[in-house]
């Protein structure tokens, strides 16, 4: 079962991603956009294994990607 993060934890994880990975969040969001079309858990696994990300960072990236994608659909 996947862990649910609070909004504050999500924002804190996003803020730490550049320091921990050496890449900006926008770069990771592009990586997800250009990556394989998978469900949430599969994308999470793909990021973790293909890009050696920690679980929390991978989950924050995928969650942020989904939030931004949903916001674009509303416009």
From TrEMBL:
InterPro entries: DUF4287. It comes from the Bacteria. It holds the Pfam family DUF4287. This is DUF4287 domain-containing protein. It comes from Streptomyces naganishii JCM 4654. The lineage of its organism: Bacteria, Bacillati, Actinomycetota, Actinomycetes, Kitasatosporales.
